[in-house]
């Protein structure tokens, strides 16, 4: 017997999955309330690392259908979305995406669509990396300091180095300056 599930995800607690649930119903999918999985988690978290989605995958069986309103509900990273769809396909689960015309992502047309989207996403990622690297190179050439500003002034950093050389522990210095032990270690390394 074919069972239909819906996976509805929002990124923050002040958002609601109500619109996604309504959109799935309006598309003609009758999903029992117990088979609507709603989750609040960032799309940057890999699908299988999300508690709700992982429980859903454990419930799914061959011939089941999983409905999502948009691909980004499964994840922002095209590679993660693709791996998730491939895993579900291997388990015999069909995945339908309403934003892509309700296409079954496990069908031939769905696989082609996923392939095109993956290539476009990879291209966009590569462009972003290129722009970021160009910006960092330009900033370095202009003499700009990169990274987060230090929590301690130059004088405080010199004092920390001197105290460490005198044998004062990381924990004592971290507490004294209100920073982490790692911050003290980074100051030591920047000699």
How does this model look, in words?
The protein is of the alpha/beta class and 191 residues long. The chain folds into 2 domains: 4-118, Resolvase, N-terminal catalytic domain (Rossmann fold), CATH 3.40.50.1390; 154-189. It is 49% helix and 12% strand. The chain has helices spanning 18-26, 51-59, 78-90, 108-141, 154-165, 170-177, 181-189; strands at residues 4-10, 36-40, 65-68, 94-97, 103-104. It has a 5-stranded mixed β-sheet with strand order 2-1-3-4-5, with helices on both faces. Helix 6 packs across helix 7 (181-189). The chain is elongated. The mean pLDDT is 89.
Low confidence ranges: none
Q: What's the name of the CATH homologous superfamily of the largest domain? A: Resolvase, N-terminal catalytic domain
Structural class, by secondary structure, is alpha/beta
Q: Compute the average pLDDT.
A: 89
């Amino acid at each position: 017997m074919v069972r239909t599930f819906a996976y509805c995800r929002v990124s923050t607690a002040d958002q609601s999955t109500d619109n996604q649930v309504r959109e799935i119903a309006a598309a003609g999918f009758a999903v029992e309330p117990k088979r609507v999985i709603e989750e609040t988690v960032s799309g940057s978290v890999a699908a299988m690392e999300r508690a709700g989605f992982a429980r859903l995958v454990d419930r799914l069986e061959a011939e089941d259908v999983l409905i999502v309103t948009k691909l980004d509900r499964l994840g922002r990273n095209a590679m993660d979305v693709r791996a998730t769809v491939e895993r579900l396909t291997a388990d015999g689960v069909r995945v339908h995406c309403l934003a892509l015309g309700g296409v079954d992502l496990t069908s031939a047309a769905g696989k082609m669509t996923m392939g095109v989207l993956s290539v476009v996403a990879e291209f966009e990622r590569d462009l972003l990396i290129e722009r970021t690297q160009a910006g960092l190179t330009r900033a370095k050439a202009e003499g700009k300091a990169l990274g987060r500003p230090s929590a301690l002034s130059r004088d405080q950093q010199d004092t920390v180095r001197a105290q460490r050389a005198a044998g004062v522990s990381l924990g004592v210095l971290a507490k004294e300056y209100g920073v982490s032990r790692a911050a003290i270690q980074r100051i030591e390394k920047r000699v």
